[in-house]
Design brief:
The chain has 324 residues and is mainly α. It has 14 helices and two strands, in the order H-H-E-E-H-H-H-H-H-H-H-H-H-H-H-H. The chain has a two-stranded antiparallel sheet. A hairpin with a 2-residue loop joins strand 1 and strand 2. Helix 1 crosses helix 9, helix 4 runs parallel beside helix 7 and helix 11 packs across helix 14. The longest helix has 30 residues.
Amino acid sequence: MLCIMGGILIGKIIPDYIQSLSNFSYAGINFPITILIWAMIFPMMMQIDFQSIKNVGRNRRGLALTLVVNWIIKPLSMAFFAWIFFKFIYQSILDPGLASEYIAGAILLGAAPCTAMVFVWSYLSDGDPNYTLVQVAVNDIVILFAFIPIVQFLLGIQALVIPFDTLLVSVVAFVVVPLLLGFIANAYFKKKMGAEKFKTQILDKLKPISIVALLLTLVIIFAYQGDIIVKQPLNILLIAIPLALQTFFIFFITWYAGKLLRLNYAICAPASMIGASNFFELAVAVAIALFGLNSGAVLATVVGVLIEVPIMLSLVKIARKWKY
């Protein structure tokens, strides 16, 4: 909460400096946030036992659950929550055109499951790092083929072109680069000091860095969007409610399905996290391309960014409390 308030305050006090930071981007990917995400993900990547990845096929039920939730249940439930709230519950307080744009933004979020931050949520909830890596890799492949048809179906937009530069840069920046560095570090330190010392002297000491990077990410995100929050607090709240409900719904439905399938906790936790969080870089980029920078669709995707970290931290807390 302090980071959120601090970020908004910084955004109001030095807006020009924050704006200059936000300009350090390529294909919708912001470089300062990318560096912080690397700081969060790197300890997770260093944990991965690359020799045991070949055994991930034993977790076929976990991967199947992830695919069903992420690509069938999640897009439909997001569209349902958005439709109910923006078309009916908010009918008397929202302009119909703006409501339709908010629905479009929510659908774009729902059709894009997480690729980067799930490493952090899995790490913080003691998930299996090997399974998490394979789970993300599978989603990166599926998103190439499934994102466009799902969005076209739910929005009724036929001439949709996916920004492949955003997709490619995101996968390289958030998965390939930290994975390669993690592989090199893992092999080097294990050879130099042994597996046990590597864990106690390196991995355990890196965990606070992940936490600090996560908190700094919150500061920057809310600094970037502080002006929007101050100018449109009611609309931010109206959008946040169905998006938050969707996030909790996907987590709980995946969690209980995982327990029903008798998945180990270390598989069930990251499987529940990946669907609950979103590939917001892709959603924001597509919203800008389709509807314009100042549209309601873009605002809805931005609200998804704003609420994701606090909500996902609460889900990490729940997962750790319910660990079995």
